[in-house]
Amino acid sequence: MFWLSPLAWLGLTAVAVPVVVHLLAHRRAERVPFPTLRFLRPTRLAAIRRRALEDVALLAVRSALIVAAVAAFAGPLLVTPARRAQWNQRLVTETVDSSPLSEGIHRAVARLESAPPARRELVIAAPLTIGSVTAADLAVVPAHVGIRFIRTGSFSATRTAEAPALLTPSGEVQRTVTLQGSETSVREAPAAARAPWPIEIVAPARLQRTVDAVRAAVLAVRVPAPPPNRRAQLVLMDDKQSSTTWGPASAGPTPVRTPWIADAITRIARDPSLLDESSRTAHGLADRALAQPPWHPLTAAADGKPVAAAAASGDRLLVASIAAESDLLVPTLARAIAVGLAQETDFRSAEIVPIPDSQLRAWTRTPGPPPPPRPDTVERDDRRWLWGAVLLLLAIETWMRRQSGDARPATEETRARVA
Fold first, then answer.
1. Are 119 and 210 in a shared domain?
2. For every one of its 419 residues, what pLDDT tens digit does the chain have, with 9 covering 90 and above?
3. Does 389 lie in the same domain as 271?
4. Domain containing residue 237
């Protein structure tokens, strides 16, 4: 037995309403005709409150009517063997055939969760190349949902894709990736135009050598070239500086409202090299304003204070950080900023090597038994029987009330006749 809306049982408190009404009701004394009061001794008048229940049967019917109505609102669902067998015979299937498959799997799982009680299966129909679906993507599928793979389409022997350009000491380099069987080759060629350095570094004069070394170090590791509309400003302060001076082209820190700036901040904050280097920094930024909105702390030093904070500045990313001579933190931060500005490239759609059939068989599983029913997925419950009982009790209550009303005039007439 399942109750689809168990909170409705709070309505049982209404059962006490008929009893409370009876006990709190103020009834006037009945007038009885009497020939004379001359032989009666006068006494002091006293108020008498009636506490006895007169019509117990009618009260019981009314209480049962309320209980039946509350139970109907609670939505009873009796899981009989026949009903469970009906659920087991039904199979709800959701097919994922759009790229990327990871997003399609999440949407399909959400649709299966809102399906009526039945066994459930997820069918993934795609070329199923390496990287198109992973164990992490399938981890979101509940254990009772079956998984089946259908390999569709054909595989090319060779496929070519354009990779993001790189910023190098000699200029921008264009890259072309060629996939042939299980081999991958990259061809590089100088770009037709020289890409500008995307990070403007603002620092005191005593840190100018650090600024020059930062740019050279970042270009030496060949970072991806960002789109032309993505730029950043890096403001460097020493550990004794308590206020920040922005560059002449900066509008100062503003809340982040541009999607690519928010994405860049998230990628910078997750950079493993930056996190490791920050943990080795003894002291963080002294300016407490950099730990409050609109700033977003990126990493923390050993003392718990942020060593770098990010915000927006117009249409640019603004980053403030602590700096010192011969420090590896700033080059590491600049490299993380350059990588965060670049667009992420997904080469999974260009892959031509299929996932081994043995791996697909390991991920395949049969649908399990239906999960417990939910209030928004049950097609038909058993509350209709309780509503029928409510109508029956309502008819009985009406009949008993009329019978009680018909008997009352006869009683009053008898009393009058006796008097």
1. no
2. 667 777 777 777 777 776 676 666 555 666 767 666 666 677 666 555 555 556 778 878 888 888 888 888 887 777 778 878 888 889 999 999 887 898 999 999 999 988 888 899 999 999 888 888 999 999 999 999 999 999 988 777 787 888 888 999 888 899 888 888 778 888 989 887 777 889 999 888 888 888 888 889 999 999 999 998 999 999 988 765 544 555 555 568 999 999 999 999 999 999 999 999 999 988 888 888 888 999 999 999 999 999 999 999 989 999 999 887 667 899 999 999 999 999 887 766 777 788 999 999 999 999 999 887 776 667 677 778 888 888 998 898 888 888 876 655 555 554 444 44
3. no
4. 197-348
Please enumerate in sequence order all residues whose Cβ is within 8 A of that of 295, keeping only pairs 6 or more positions apart, or say none: 253, 289, 309, 310, 311, 320
User: Which amino acid type is present at position 394?
Assistant: L
Rounded CA-CA distance 213/209 in Å is 6
In this structure, are residues 334 and 216 in contact, taking their beta carbons and an 8 Å threshold? Answer: no
Q: How many independent structural domains does the chain possess? A: 3
Contact call for residues 112 and 329 (beta carbons, < 8 A): no
Amino acid at 147: I
- Specify the pTM: 0.59
Q: Are residues 115 and 208 in the same domain?
A: no
153 φψ region: left (φ > 0), alpha (ψ -120 to 50), beta (else): left
Same-domain check for residues 301 and 320: yes
Would strands 171-180 and 183-190 be described as parallel, antiparallel, or unpaired?
A: antiparallel
- Distance of alpha carbon 367 from alpha carbon 183, whole angstroms: 38
Tokens of 230: 């993505």
316 and 222, same structural domain?
yes
Co-location of 9 and 69 in the same domain: yes
Strand order through the sheet with 158-168: 183-190, 171-180, 158-168, 223-224
In a domain, residue 172? The reply is no
Q: Flag whether 338 is in a domain.
A: yes
The count of other CB atoms within 10 Å of the CB of residue 5 is 13
Residue with tokens 């009683």: 411
CA distances from 151 to 103, 124, 224, 355, 382 (A): 18, 8, 34, 10, 44
395 with 335, same domain: the answer is no
